[in-house]
């Protein structure tokens, strides 16, 4: 009898689901975590009766493609995992559905997610409690290195002789550069190796994301007081200048030849092909790297962005939003509700995503669950993000230009580059009516 | 009475349409045929141009839900006083000058050789023309690999002749070499086009002129300067016009090769304009930028076409 009752209930639920079954399209970048999300979403399809389609765009075209879609009021995406910088534009231009009422009705609490992630991925204006996304994919910039090379006795001996200390994971920016310089042009296994692959890409956001890893740890800030838009003394502070000079030195001393326009893919290629001893990249790639049969497993290890004056990491990652132009918003909200559940978040982590739900990341054994899990937690506690203003693209491209001109094209000084950056940003904020 | 073309058209069409056509004047028939084209032209070319001019006086942003404000000449003032934009113009001028000089010299030389009709000239013509048939994006990608410091054949070829270390220089990564790297690729790709135009010019010169010069005992050198060059000059000038306009708006090849870098040394005006319009979304500002470029190209091309007509009429 009980079984029959359960069967009837399931049938009714299933019929109810079928009656309003939708085909939802989720848009994101085409990378490893997206494949994990496809796998994860099969559970949602089974539970809800909705079907899921995915629109994944390669990173170099992701912003262009998706922002054009939003700006034109397109209905391609019902759900969008948009970059953290888009949140201001998404909110102010009406692209994203405000989620406060939904969160309240469904008892989804932002207290269940890491504070830094909620601040970075969900809120606009910053510091307010207006939510336009659920934190979906925590991410930050981190480092990885050839552990097997570091452990070679002859390499250890040479480093000890040169620097008077054992070769180990760097904990400061100075150590990082020292190790990178040590490996530069060093013969290992009969091949010439180089120090580090860092981000130098000019077209989208690469060099900014890479250089800010050095700038933040030296003390770079966007404003003298948060929300003031007063940049003089923060953006071009002596610490910021030192940070930028450091990044240029690292680029000049320790990267492979011709490494002038490199971002995520190029960094991975340089590492996987055995060119470099160390590389910077987003934590999102670390599960794939660890699983790599050639350079993963025992051959690789990971470390958090080393500090200079302060501990800091460049923020990556994204929140998931419901697109306001979608005519399947109810079903899309169902997905968000489903995704916010702790057991789904746990499975997300197991499949290769990076949840920021406290039930997962503060749970027992999280740090030991992967060789990079502890570093991920540490990084997420010290993240800093780029401007999330609606005019972020203009602000970002200005920084890309100024940094590339100085670091790669060797034009002017760090001080001049940052002073010019303030001029560019001031013009933008004046146009925006914020200055 | 002789049957007119209108009658023939009317006879070939259904009776009611024919009746209507018979009632139309020649002018009306002409408008009937030309009208749709004019409407299309106005909708696709003229209206956007006028709209662009209008937007250039506003702070409109295509990605924002807010009203555009009239800002007068502010966009123009900003562009014309922006040091970075002048550097971009300088990079474009450098690219234009050297590609045109090299393509005209090499293209004319190749055409001159091919015109000799030696054995296998048809085969070599086809081989030379091949690069022009490729997509600029493919060419850009292809040359990016050739220019790689560690695996690129170009670097190895240079190293072979100079004895330098192939890893010691990066064509697309060096501030000094990057502008030349795109000049080399564009020249490789488009010299055949100039060659074909010159070949057409050379083949249009009647043999009788050379025969008359031979009778007058003019040397080959004198024949070249007094017959060949002046008669091919209008063709050469046409080639320069085509290549000049094409290279002024060059985009895909450079984006694929250098992305405008390193720094901004190969950021041509077309790339810069695209960043302003579709990456920064400063639509009003980009419109003013486009208007300035349009006026520049239109003005220069008009002066050039006048000069070309004078040369042709000589």
Automatic annotation (TrEMBL), chain A:
Top-rank lineage group of the source organism: Bacteria
First-listed, main subcellular location of the protein, grouped into a coarse class: periplasm
Localization per Swiss-Prot or TrEMBL: Periplasm
UniProt KW keywords: Signal, Transport
Signal peptide (UniProt feature, chain positions): 1-21
Any Pfam family hit: SBP_bac_1
SUPFAM superfamilies on file: Periplasmic binding protein-like II
Family to which the UniProt record says this protein belongs: Belongs to the bacterial solute-binding protein 1 family.
Official protein name in the record: Extracellular solute-binding protein
UniProtKB/TrEMBL annotation, chain B:
Cell location: Cell membrane
Keywords attached to this entry: Membrane, Transmembrane, Transmembrane helix, Transport
Membrane topology according to the record: Multi-pass membrane protein
Parts forming coiled coils: none
Species for this entry: Jannaschia ovalis
A Pfam family annotated for this UniProt entry: BPD_transp_1
Family as reported in the entry's similarity comment: Belongs to the binding-protein-dependent transport system permease family.
Boundaries of every ABC transmembrane type-1 domain copy: 89-304
Name of the protein this chain belongs to: Sugar ABC transporter permease
Transmembrane regions listed in the UniProt entry: 29-51, 95-115, 122-146, 177-202, 223-245, 286-305
């Amino acid at each position: 009898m009980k079984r029959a009752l359960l069967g009837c209930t399931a049938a009714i639920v299933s019929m109810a689901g079928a009656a309003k079954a939708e085909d939802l399209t989720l848009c994101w970048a085409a990378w490893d975590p997206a494949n994990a999300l496809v796998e994860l979403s099969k559970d949602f399809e089974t539970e809800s009766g909705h079907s899921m389609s995915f629109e994944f765009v390669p990173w170099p075209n992701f912003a262009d493609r998706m922002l054009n879609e939003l700006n034109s009021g397109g209905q391609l995406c019902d759900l969008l995992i948009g970059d953290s910088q888009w949140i201001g534009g998404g909110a102010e231009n009406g692209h994203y559905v405000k989620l406060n009422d939904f969160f309240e009705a469904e008892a989804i609490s932002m207290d269940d997610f890491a504070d830094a992630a909620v601040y970075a991925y969900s809120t606009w204006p910053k510091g307010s409690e207006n939510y336009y996304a659920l934190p979906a994919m925590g991410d930050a910039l981190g480092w990885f290195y050839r552990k097997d090379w570091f452990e070679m006795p002859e390499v250890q001996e040479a480093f000890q002789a040169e620097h008077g200390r054992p070769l180990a994971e760097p904990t400061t920016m100075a150590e990082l550069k020292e190790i990178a310089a040590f490996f530069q042009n060093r013969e290992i296994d009969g091949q010439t190796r180089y120090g580090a692959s860092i981000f130098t890409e000019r077209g989208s956001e690469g060099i900014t994301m890479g250089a800010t890893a050095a700038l933040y740890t030296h003390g770079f800030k966007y404003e003298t007081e948060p929300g003031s838009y007063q940049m003089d003394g923060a953006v071009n502070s002596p610490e910021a200048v030192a940070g930028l000079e450091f990044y240029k030195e690292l680029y000049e001393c320790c990267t492979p030849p011709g490494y002038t326009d490199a971002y995520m893919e190029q960094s991975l290629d340089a590492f996987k092909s055995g060119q470099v001893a160390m590389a910077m990249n987003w934590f999102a790639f670390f599960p794939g790297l660890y699983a790599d049969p050639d350079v993963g497993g025992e051959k690789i290890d990971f470390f958090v962005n080393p500090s200079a004056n302060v501990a800091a990491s460049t923020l990556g990652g994204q929140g998931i939003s419901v697109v306001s132009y979608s005519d399947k918003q109810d079903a899309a909200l169902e997905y968000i509700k489903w995704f916010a559940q702790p057991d789904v978040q746990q499975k997300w982590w197991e499949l290769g995503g990076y949840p920021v739900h406290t039930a997962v990341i503060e749970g027992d054994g999280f740090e030991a669950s992967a060789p990079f899990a502890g570093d991920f937690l540490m990084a997420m506690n010290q993240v800093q993000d780029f401007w999330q203003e609606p005019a972020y693209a203009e602000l970002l491209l200005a920084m890309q230009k100024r940094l590339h001109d100085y670091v790669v094209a060797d034009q002017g000084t760090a001080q001049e580059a940052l002073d010019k950056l303030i001029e560019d940003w001031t013009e933008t904020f004046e146009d925006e009516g914020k200055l | 009475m002789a049957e007119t073309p209108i009658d023939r058209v009317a006879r070939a069409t259904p009776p009611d349409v024919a009746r209507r056509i018979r009632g139309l004047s020649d002018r009306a028939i002409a408008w009937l045929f030309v009208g749709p084209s004019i409407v299309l032209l106005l909708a696709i070319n003229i209206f956007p141009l006028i709209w662009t001019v209008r937007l250039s006086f506003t702070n409109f942003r295509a990605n924002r839900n807010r009203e555009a404000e009239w800002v007068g000449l502010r966009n123009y003032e900003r562009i014309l006083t922006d040091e970075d934009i002048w550097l971009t113009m300088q990079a474009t001028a450098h690219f234009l000058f050297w590609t045109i000089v090299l393509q005209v010299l090499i293209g004319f030389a190749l055409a001159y050789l091919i015109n000799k009709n030696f054995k296998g000239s048809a085969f070599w013509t086809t081989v030379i023309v091949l690069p022009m048939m490729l997509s600029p994006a493919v060419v850009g990608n292809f040359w990016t690999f050739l220019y790689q410091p560690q695996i690129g054949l170009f670097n190895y070829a240079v190293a072979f002749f100079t004895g330098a270390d192939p890893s010691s220089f990066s064509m697309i990564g060096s501030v000094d070499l990057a502008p030349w790297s795109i000049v080399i690729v564009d020249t490789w790709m488009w010299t055949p086009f100039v060659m074909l135009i010159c070949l057409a010019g050379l083949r249009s010169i009647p043999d009788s002129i050379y025969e008359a010069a031979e009778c007058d005992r003019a040397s080959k050198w004198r024949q070249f300067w007094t017959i060949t060059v002046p008669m091919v000059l209008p063709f050469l000038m046409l080639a320069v016009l085509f290549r000049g306009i094409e290279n002024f708006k060059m985009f895909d090849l450079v984006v694929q090769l250098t992305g405008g870098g390193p720094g901004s040394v190969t950021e041509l005006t077309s790339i810069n304009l695209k960043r302003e319009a579709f990456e920064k979304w400063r639509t009003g500002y980009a419109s003013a930028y486009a208007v300035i470029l349009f006026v520049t190209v239109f003005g220069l091309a008009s002066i050039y076409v006048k000069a070309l007509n004078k040369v042709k009429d000589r």
